[in-house]
Specification:
Elements: H1 4-15, H2 18-95
Length: 96
């Protein structure tokens, strides 16, 4: 047997439109997404800052290494030229 309160609850539930339920669920979902976004935005900002700093460090390292490689390349070429001259000199001495 249903009481007066049970009847009122049934009538109220029967008058709720499926569209109203859908709107309520979408609003609830939207609020959850906004909350997640508010929590994630500061993290994303920090990650972007870190990525920028890392990129700057990599650029400096690349410039430094490029300079060192160029210097080593010059030393190798100079050393090879000196060896070439020395070998030519020794060949000339042996030819005499």
């Amino acid at each position: 047997m249903l009481g007066v309160g049970d009847e009122a609850g049934k009538q109220e539930a029967a008058t709720v439109s499926p569209w109203d339920v859908l709107v309520w669920k979408l609003d609830s979902l939207d609020k959850r997404v906004e909350g997640m976004e508010q929590r994630l935005n500061p993290r994303m900002d920090r990650m972007e800052d870190r990525a920028d700093r890392l990129e700057q460090r990599f650029d400096r390292l690349d410039q430094r290494l490029s300079g060192e490689v160029a210097a080593l390349r010059g030393e190798v070429h100079a050393g090879m030229a000196a060896l070439r001259e020395e070998v030519h000199g020794q060949i000339a001495m042996l030819s005499c």
